[in-house]
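Hi everyone,

Forwarding the result from last night's run.
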Amino acid sequence: MLIPKKNRNEVYKYLFQEGVLYAKKDFNLQKHPEIDVPNLQVIKLMQSFKSKEYVRETFSWMYYYWYLTNDGIEYLRTYLNLPSEIVPATLKKSVKPLGRSMGGGPGGDRPRGPPRFEGDRPRFGDRDGYRGGPRGGEFGDKGGAPPEFQPSFRVTS
């Protein structure tokens, strides 16, 4: 398919900047939601990249998802004349805020509630004897079959 160079460059710039790209499987869609390029051209460019193993493709719920591979990064870097210091957003380390600790330890900005188990309070409340009480009742003992019971399969004709 012939794709104008302007559109090709737009798709390549977006793919390199983000590191990922998606497109709805709708070949008649006039414009891609993120890029000002027809959706069909985006799909066909990524189909070409997939055959060259520059992207990895996933398809789910009528959407294509493409993830840039290391070979694709190198190809786009040479095609777009970018220095090696510029990397896609998927390869950048995210900065985590230092004010909050993970793991629920002390600290943080939320007040802590009372301790869960206080002193002699039973752990499960009133369920202490749920399955450990005496058996019986109106349906008899439900302890199971006696130990001398030997089940067998017999054919009666």
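The chain is about 25% helix and 10% strand.

Cheers,
N.
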